[in-house]
Amino acid sequence: MDQIGPSGESIIDYSVFDAIRAGFGKVVFVINPKIEKEFKEVYERRLSGKIETAYVLQELSKIPEGLHLHPGRKKPWGTGHAVLVARDLIHEPFAVINADDFYGAEAFKVLGSYLSTMKNDVTHYAMVGYPLKNTLSENGSVSRGVCQVQDGKLAAVVERTSIVRKDGHIVYEENGEQVPVDEDVLVSMNLWGFIPGYFDYSETYFREFIQAHANELTAEFYIPFVVNKLIKEKKATVRVLESLDQWFGVTYQADKAVTIKKLRAMVEAGTYPVSLWS
After folding, report:
1. DSSP symbol at 140
2. DSSP three-state, residue 151
3. Rg (CA), the chain
4. Beta strand 124-131 with 237-242: parallel, antiparallel or unpaired?
5. pLDDT digit string (tens) for 229-275?
6. How many other CB atoms are found less than 10 A from the CB of residue 138?
7. For residues 25, 76, 46 and 17, what is the CA-based torsion angle, rounded to 10 degrees?
8. What kind of fold does domain 11-268 have according to CATH?
9. pTM for the complete prediction?
10. pLDDT tens profile 198-214
11. Which of 99, 103, 118, 219 registers the highest number of CB atoms within 10 A of its CB?
12. For the chain, which residues make up each domain, given as ranges?
């Protein structure tokens, strides 16, 4: 909900605005119970009459029936769990985004176009990838899911940590060493396109995940875990769509000023209105 736009908009306001322009007709917010009241007060007012909205809480107790929550568990189960808790509110092809990432209008356009051709009984998913060079922070290292692509389809997502530009090259850390990586390689920024059948697979894998990691109090169930497993087991394919937009977000506190500056430049260029919802 942090204000970064010239009229007090948050990053998620721009994402919803771009989604509406791309043809999406509904947004489901997956939120922390601690901010439910404040969040609804902000976005129900802003989005009323603009797009259908729904809200779901990512609560620790929302796990598959028959499983038990470890009493020491304090944090949510991760992005895979966040998507899964929304299943009862989604009955059509859908996109998944991070609330604190700015993806750009092109990303929503290409993904919306792809999803508009999909039927609920297929297992052809999609992911929007960004050139790595367009996703770095000016204020420190980042972690990214590096995509392995074959014939336009995702073969795997490999998590790379401590990615940073150094001496004119982009490197990541592995086993204490810095390894060069192509600046144009596509990376996942958690912009996915799924069909409702994805939920059935996700719940099965989540059940297996909890059983395997029951005593790991910080283990998280990520979307790429599900996707990689589906690809490996040949249960789904994932088309890789590319966006040349400049991704940005607030990984570090210092990124906020950069984000505000970039959005202001877009407003001045006419890409967005001064006030999104007025």
Report:
1. B
2. coil
3. 19
4. parallel
5. 999 999 999 999 999 888 888 888 888 999 999 999 999 999 999 99
6. 11
7. -50
8. Spore Coat Polysaccharide Biosynthesis Protein SpsA; Chain A (3.90.550)
9. 0.92
10. 999 999 999 999 999 98
11. 103
12. 11-268
